[in-house]
Please model this.
Amino acid sequence: MLLITCPWCGPRAEIEFQYGGEAHIARPADPVALDDAAWADHLFMRKNPKGKHRERWMHRSGCRRWFNMERDTISHEITAVYRIGTTVPGKEGT
Amino acid sequence: MNDQPFRLDTAAAPGRIDRGHAMRFVFNGRGHEGLAGDTLASALIANGVHLVGRSFKYHRPRGILTSGPEEPNALVQLRAGERSEPNVRATQAELFDGLIARSQNCWPSVGFDLGAVNELASRILPAGFYYKTFMWPPSAWMFYERLIRRAAGLGRAPDDPDPDIYDKRYAHCDVLVVGAGPAGLAAALAAGRSGARVILCDEQAEMGGQLLGQRAVIADRPALDWVKAALTELAALPEVTLLPRTTCFGYYDHNALALVERVADHLAKPAAHQPRQRLWRVRAARVVLATGAIERPLVFRDNDRPGIMLAGAAATYVTRYAAAPGRRVAVFTNNDSAYRAALALFDAGVGVAAVIDLRPEPGPLAGEIRARGIELLTGHGIVATHGARRIAAIEVMQLDESGGRAIGPVRSIACDALAMSGGWNPTVHLFSQARGRLRYDAAQGVFLPDRCDQALANAGACNGAWSLGDCLAEGFAAGATAASAAGYATAAPSAPAVPPESRAPLRVLWVVPSDRPIGEGGKHFVDFQNDVTAADLGLAAREGYRSVEHLKRYTTTGMGTDQGKLSNVNALGILSEALAAEPSTIGTTTFRPPYTPISYGALAGRDVGALADPVRTTAMHTWHAEAGAAFEDVGQWKRPWYYPKLGESMHDAVNREVKAARTCIGILDASTLGKIDIRGPDAAEFLNRIYTNAWSKLEVGRSRYGFMCKDDGMVFDDGVTTRLAADHFHMTTTTGGAARVLAWLEEWSQTEWPELRVYMSSVTEQWAVAAICGPHARDLLAELATDIDLDPKTFPFMAVREGRVAGVPARIFRISFTGEISYEINVPRRWGLALWRALMQAGADKGVTPYGTEAMHVLRAEKGFVIVGQETDGTVTPIDLGMAGMVSKTKDFIGKRSLARGDSMRPDRKQLVGLLTDDPRIVLPEGGQIVAELKPEPPMAMIGHVTSSYHSPNLGRSIALALIKGGRDRMGQALHVPLADRTIRVKVVEPRFFDPEGKRQNG
Amino acid sequence: MPRYSIFSLLRNALTYHRDWQAAWRSPEPKPAYDVIIVGGGGHGLATAYYLAKEHGITNVAVVEKGWLGGGNTGRNTTIVRSNYLWDESAHLYEHSLKLWEGLSQDLNFNVMFSQRGVLNLAHNQHDLRELQRRVNAIRLNGIDSEILTTAQVKTMVPILDCSPGIRYPVLGASLQRRGGVARHDAVAWGFARAADARGVDIIQNCEVTGIRREGDRVVGVETTRGFIGAGKVGCVAAGHSSVLAAMAGLRLPIESHPLQALVSEPIKPILDAVVMSAAVHVYVSQSDKGELVMGAGIDAFTSYGQRGSLPIIEEIMASACVLFPIFSRLKMLRSWGGIVDVCPDASPIISATPVKGLYFNCGWGTGGFKATPGSGWVFAHTIAQNRPHPLNQAFALDRFSSGALIDEHGAAAVAH
Model:
């Protein structure tokens, strides 16, 4: 069971959190301007990588704040926790 | 009652049993006596009972093989009645007065078992035989299978529910030490002295591990003195928790470990309110695994007779329990440890027939063996055993240099027990569960911990430390390191002195040869419980099942209740020989939780029975219950379904309620609807993006109905939202959708539109809601709402007013789910019941009638109002529901882009329509499928289904709603609803049956 | 292929079973094949088998990075059924079920397909309504399906708590009598043996590390045992689909999640049918060995770790004890995890891709085992003919652009 460090509340057990899928998928500014394939790409296609994954979580049974996390999808090691709207600390611009 | 003929006297073997405290027990219907401190196994041995079970496949007689959790044979049905438990290892079951146990998987008795006929056919029942046969005739498998199923299984489930309770708790600690043998005790001492929070758990009733069954010396005194001192010191440390009878069975991510504490299994039954077991969910900063080692059997011909046991177990029975495995015990080994067992047996007064060592050169203890006059045969192996229900003799031959062939004359040695040792396997299960990698040590023939990414350390035998001195040293070091890594200052640990031990290497011989080829005489068991032999493994390898996982699955080796604790490494060794490959290149199977089987009850805890899921009730629940309401489960809520009067059927009650709401006054407890308070200067813009329709221009004090979609364009929830102030909205959601919708709003506001200044909070539980409706609803409200102007000109439909109702502060929403004049009166929850009572009292002479969810459904269906989750299923757009007018063409909203996809625009999408049966008395079943073209029998093409269907007392006929392909273009068409037993003809109509212009609600 | 039968068993017993042949060869990979199937699980081996049997394409290799059947084929709870709501799914799974019904004889390998009946329980009015809808749809698709009353359920499963007034009362159930369970490993082994006999090369311990393209066409795969050429490559590697897709420069609408299952210690038979409950989140059957086989929902986060969290197990156990109070004193023997590739609409993808000659069969989520023969059958057709069979036309990748999804979340509300 993961031990997740909520940026607002500190380390808490996985059962307090809700998973929110791949992070950094920007919603198109003007969805109507996209063709069906591009919209499907935004809506459904995912990297789903084996290894480091940047993903969204919400502290459901705590502060109910969303945040981002970088986690290895094989070892489950958490390498970064960072706020929405920012990127992995030390990796700005990546 | 006998006198425990195999119990050793105090002088020869003091043991750790309480000779002053006899306990009676019954095994297979026969009464015996044991002592406090016994396990069922040790008590049976003390009584000379070795035949305790039958094997899974061949029903071979089996005895007690081990003294611990690895026991594959001695499984019993423990206790009787509702507390009966199958597959209990006799080696771990603590004896209590009045214990009852039975052998399993045998009929009529363990002594004479008809299932043993399988043994006669064993020649045609090799590994995997069932994959090759039972295929003819094709339909016969179900017949064969019935016979196979009847023969399979071990113990029996109890007939009645478990009367016991189970607890769970969380714990956090700096250092969790698993195993309280010498290494674990040392680790706990080193960590505990630093002030760190330490949990030390051990599966046995008594801490001390292997030391309990040995005659070791620490600091020039009996080792158990040191154990006692260590436990005394640990018990006195305030931050140390000692958990005996507690098995750590699972090692999960991020140092989360699961333990089960057997609180009351050693008692006849738990004391009042005492849990039977307790599940500990521990998060440890550091973990020290001191899990010891498990002795490995030798694989030789007919190595499974009762009376054959592991040498360490034999020593334990003698030393710890003062129970002699026999009068004349032979010892068979490939390593030094069994020499010590032989000495322990001899010194306790048990006759030792001979020590047979596979190694050509004897071990360093050979002198002590010979000094006692025990015969020592080196370079020899056992080639056969004899004895029907208990071993009576062994046959011994010399082995050639390679160990591959037995040579020379056969010698028979009489014995009534045989102690064997094939070396020791480090107990690496938890380490492996923690995703630790193992490495194979060819010299010792064992897998050892290698590296692991979790914050753990291994100490003692589980780490390949075989001498007591090494175990203690590793334990102290690991405990100190763990505490200091967790942030505590530790003193340099020093382990107490122990006498030096000299050791000779063991001889790895995966299969001991006999005078016949393997598989052509006798059976060389590798997995005792599942009856897997060396020949089976060879066959699997020949047939191409060469991956260790294939081998395991094809032969079922390691798949029994012991999960291969005895068999896995032997099987791997035999496979590696068959493939002429190094075991290291073959790898091990993955170790998975749990380490030992864990009761369902402990894992379920208290979340069973009435506590399986929380029940939510409204403020008015007691009134409904007293009124005799029938309740319906809606999510976790209990909602009144209908209120039957004495002798009234559901149909009658619902009709009465529905009519009252249209002709008089109906009252509904609407408290369960989701309610979300939304505030902030950008709240209106936020709703614009969430809902499909526009919200910016909604006036303060007015309400609007809205759909929300997911980004795939499908309806997700609906409800009425009211503007209480320019920057303040009150949103309602469906009962089941409340939590989802709140999470949805939070997600979008935080992750996608953080620039919007909007805040939301669930207020579902804060407001109790009584909805009154009907032509006289206003008259009723007027009596209780004296400070609110109810004139429809000033308080029209879709408006809100605040004031007092029955003296209670209230928000009144003039919204309607029935199409009647309707007021939803919201008051703070604590006044909900008072409000309801006041309304019922004031309305008594006006004919106010409470109605439940069923009548509500009928009323809304008469109006064609949809219920999300009933008319929708995640594949329906607002346009499909005929609500195109509520889908904005100008602004963007969640889901808009998807509504423009090809499939969303198809004219033959399923659309909401009404259905009327030709016969007005017939009520369609909900879920009925609709076809345009009726065929005599299936298959036939379906074009939709009935979503809602009721008898409408106001129309005097049945009505239904349906989703039908291209339904809007089918108005007036005749369609069919073919059911299993009949077909119903229907006509497609507009989905509005009553007051289609919607005038009444404005009245 | 020497046939398996009681006679061959007797004959071999005379020679102490020394002379059994290997069930499949372990060939070295050839430089090139007509078709390479990536993934030696049930679906991949079935694809190879039907390529050879139905389409005469025998110059086929199945490359498997580990041991065959080692993925979800060997990790699932073995439930087979075809009681799906939507026409497209019902037809596909029913085709598969019909293949199951003759599979042991077709493969000459006893896959122990046991039609014990599959029950889906209803616990509230909403469940009952959905059950009716489903049963009617399934029946009109020509598939067996019926509704049972509480009393009928109790007769069929006496150990189920059917008393009124409990937290999750049993209000009824749907039953597919032709549904049941099969021996999962045997399915992989049976297909492997039968495919091998028709000339298919099964290459284990051979990991695909790259998919080589020339222009918009696939020309083969890079592996840990070197490059292997092929005109057509079919990827059917659950739990690894996105990784393979990335090798070809594609993205899939897939997320990979852990799915856990467990077995109890073996006990004497107490449960004949397969019992599933979406509301209580559990599905359970009893194996021929006597173990209760159980599973539940997926872990929420994505993972390739083949392991899950304890809280999921705790929930399954509580659910099991709620439905079957006599389970409380039984013991969990072994729990494990697999990786399931989940599509947004809970339906699979069996499809060509924008890369010519490259095909994907993936996204079966929690319910792929039951489809094993059918999936292989239609995938073989898709690869051989370079166009989908009518049965899998709707399961193409382009449905995510058009929006013509096949939303089977109802069917997968609880994993199976």
